[in-house]
Structure formats: C-alpha cells, structure tokens
Amino acid sequence: YKVDGAVTTVKDYTMQRGDYLLADGNLLPKGTTLTEEQKASVTAIVFYVGHHENDASDYSATRIGQKKCHGYAVALQDATTTNIYCMWGVYNKELGLYPTYPGSNKRPNNIDYPDYDWSGYTNTRKIVNAAGGEQNLNKDTEAGYPAIWYAVVDYESKHPAPAKSSGWFLPSIGQMYRLYTQRKVLEKISVYDSLHGQYWSSSEEYGAPNYEALYVSFTYTIWTIDGGEKGSNDCYVRSILAF
Questions:
Q1: Nearest to 59 by CA among 169, 146, 151
Q2: pLDDT score at 2
Q3: How many CB atoms lie within 10 A of CB 73?
Q4: Residue 121 CA to its chain's centroid (Å)
Q5: How are the residues of the chain apportioned to helix, strand and coil, as percentages rounded to the nearest 5?
Q6: Are 79 and 238 in contact (CB under 8 A)?
Q7: Are residues 73 and 184 in contact, defined by beta-carbon separation less than 8 angstroms?
C-alpha cells in the first residue's frame, strides 16, 4: 500500500509463524496492525515455515505448482459447526494413512512420535479417492467421510482457499500436534478462533489402522493424542493448507 508517486522501499522479510495469509495469496507480517479491509481478507495464519522434512506430499498438481511448499497455514475457524462433533469415516477399513520407515513396511509410533507423520495433504487425497471423489463426500454417513467433507468441501464453499495454495485439507497428526505446540502464538491473534476440544487428524493409528483415526485434545494442559473409532462422533475439524 502506498500513495501514488511515492518512492517504493523494498525490504527483505523472513516469513514467520503468526504471519497473515491473505485471500489473494499474499502475506502480511504478524506485527501488522490490520485495517478492517485487511482483516476481511485474512484467510489463514502461518504455523510452520518451509516444507517439513517428513511431509511426503507432492504439491506439483496443486496451485503451488511445485513438489515442495513454502509453509503451512491454519484456517481461522473450525470447519465443523459450533459444538458439533463429527464422524471420521468408515470403520473397519484401512487406507494406509500412516508413515513407514524408509525401505521397510515398519510403521513409526505416530501417537508417541507424531512428528514423523506430516503428510496431511496426501492423506486427504487418499480419503477422497476412497470415497470415489469429492462429489461422494458428505457429513452424514461413514462412506461419506464426514471429517473430510467438512475440511475440504464445506469449508471451501464458505472460505475459498488462497491462490497459489494446495487448497484446504485435513491435517495429519503431526500437523495437528504442531498446532497444539503453537497455540500460544496463535491465540494472541485477534482474527483467529482458538481450538478447544478434540480435533480429528487425517492419520490412522499405527497399531489399529482399520478401526481408529488419531486426534489431538486441546482440552487439557498436558497434550493428549489418542485414537478414536472412525465411525464415532468424537471430534471437531480444523482445516489447514500448504502454500
């Protein structure tokens, strides 16, 4: 923003957690005093800078247009309706939504070591494919994978994802846990609605992938990661995106 004819000063800026991601894909530094117009344009808040080393997602086919992303941002509000928990999806069906150690089929413990598990975008696309496409997602049936419907379809219809982003997806357990660790940074941001309660991830529990998806609880002072039955109405949903 500048007055016509004024000299434009260009300064280097290193992206930080807490920066504002706008609807047009541009960023504003976290210390910015937002105008009302800018507040209306803020779509997400940066919570991790750079492409995480354990994110196996390839963003080439998204609007990012390259394999690796520049960072990750969280939606300003829940995708689920206030005080309404939702189902995750089909019980007794494994989709392979967990990491494996390189060169083996052995699965890391993604409950005790969630940082291994950062491929939320890939997980989300696998779930969409399992449903037979986004047109088959819905909020009412296990086969409609309600958590994904809220995160991807319903939230996008109300809050379109910024240009040059991956589009909204359901975070992996590592990404969801990172939101927990960054909560003190995020909760200071006036346009951001804090997370309270239990939130689904897109990750299956490594020891029981047929039956349980992982969630993070934001209810307690000590963080909690646990598995919830896929067909139960256990958790809220908060969307994130890569950019």
A1: 169
A2: 42
A3: 24
A4: 8
A5: 20, 20, 60
A6: yes
A7: no
